[in-house]
């Protein structure tokens, strides 16, 4: 089972094309329609980036934890380990669920099992060395 998939995009435009198109639109050198045709960036994409003010493209789902929250979770897991609790996958998954409950973080974890998912655990362990 592969850990993560390669990010793909069907379009033929690059990040620099997007940036150049947005610059031309902001400086009123081109309309959004003309910039879309010139740089081959979809017009809707240009309008979305103008509306949000963001140029960074993010693919996939929004992460459950921010970087600081994930560091805090990692610290609490290490504290459990230092107290003598064995770090089994189930313990880490349950601790992640309890962390979300404690700080009222919206999450996709199972309420029935009161634990984070196995894929989340694999990705968490790949990001952080425990």
UniProtKB/TrEMBL annotation:
One GO CC term, this protein: nucleus
GO molecular function terms attached to this record: DNA binding
SUPFAM superfamilies assigned: Homeodomain-like
Highest taxon of the lineage: Eukaryota
Pfam family, any one: HTH_psq
Localization per record: Nucleus
Domain HTH CENPB-type positions: 57-130
Keywords annotated in UniProt: DNA-binding, Nucleus
Name the UniProt record assigns to this protein: HTH CENPB-type domain-containing protein
Organism whose genome encodes this protein: Cryptolaemus montrouzieri
């Amino acid at each position: 089972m592969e850990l993560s998939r390669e990010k793909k995009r069907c379009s033929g435009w690059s990040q620099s094309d997007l940036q150049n198109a947005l610059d031309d639109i902001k400086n009123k050198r081109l309309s959004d329609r003309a910039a879309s045709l010139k740089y081959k960036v979809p017009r809707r994409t240009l309008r979305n980036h103008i509306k949000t003010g963001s140029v960074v493209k993010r693919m996939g789902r929004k992460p459950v934890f921010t970087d600081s929250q994930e560091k805090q979770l990692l610290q609490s897991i290490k504290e459990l380990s230092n107290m003598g609790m064995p770090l089994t996958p189930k313990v880490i998954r349950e601790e992640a669920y309890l962390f979300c409950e404690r700080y009222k973080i919206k999450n996709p974890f199972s309420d029935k099992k009161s634990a984070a998912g196995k894929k989340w655990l694999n990705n968490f362990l790949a990001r952080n060395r425990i």
